[in-house]
Amino acid sequence: MIPAERIAAQLYTVRNLIRTPAEIAATLKRIRRIGYSAVQVSGMGPIAEQELKRILDGEGLVCCATHEPPERILQSPQEVAERLHQLDCRHTAYPSPRGVDMSQPEDIRQLARQLDQAGAILRKHGITLSYHNHAMEFFRHDDRTALELIYALSRPQHLAAELDTYWIQAGGGNPAVWCRKMKGRLPLLHLKDFGVKADGTAEFREIGSGNLNWAEIIEGASMSGCEWWIVEQDQTSGDPLHSLESSRKFLIRHFSQAS
Prior knowledge:
Layout: E1 7-10, H1 21-34, E2 38-41, H2 49-59, E3 62-67, H3 70-75, H4 77-86, E4 91-94, H5 105-124, E5 128-132, E6 140-141, E7 144-145, H6 146-152, E8 160-164, H7 165-170, H8 175-181, E9 188-191, E10 193-196, E11 202-205, H9 214-223, E12 228-231, H10 240-255
Parallel strand pairs: 1-2, 1-12, 2-3, 3-4, 4-5, 5-8, 8-9, 9-12
Antiparallel strand pairs: 6-7, 10-11
């Protein structure tokens, strides 16, 4: 079972509704009314950390994690730590590699080294760095994927996982297997469903309305010590807040109890 207070909303889902401080305040209020008590900060327009923290506190919301620009994490981890301390947040994730060719082993080795170094600095400041995957990391190098290499070439105490269920499936992996594989190294999990259109193309779907085996995923992530269950949908056909609400209702109905 997932503790209801550990189900968070990834704000990238509502990125078009959080472009100004006024929009941020209004949208966070609606997210709290849906029932979420935590959010992952990402895709947000400019706002001072102190003002964002004031809005979060006023709504009774926790910042469970952030996504930070890739370059800032690798080049200025000290600044990232200072930002997260202002938000009273202990987790951040490297959102997506830039300028990295997953078919090139040396590119992967260099990225893993940089992530390990940044993660070591963040750890000294009480922050856990995780890696957020897409499908590209499932490019195979003989018997291992690029994602497996990234984790093999970095230390668990310096780099954890923010697995993304949709993108694992899109890359040809098994989300439940990956959740079990990252035991002790999975503080964050992005939950989004994988749907297929009539023409065979894939699409993002609300949790419970696609093809993923959620019972196995939840069990695997629970066994691996997942701390935050973060609901996200990269693209929605309607109101993204309705998408967040639908996904949360499914999780509460099948895997949790409302607090």
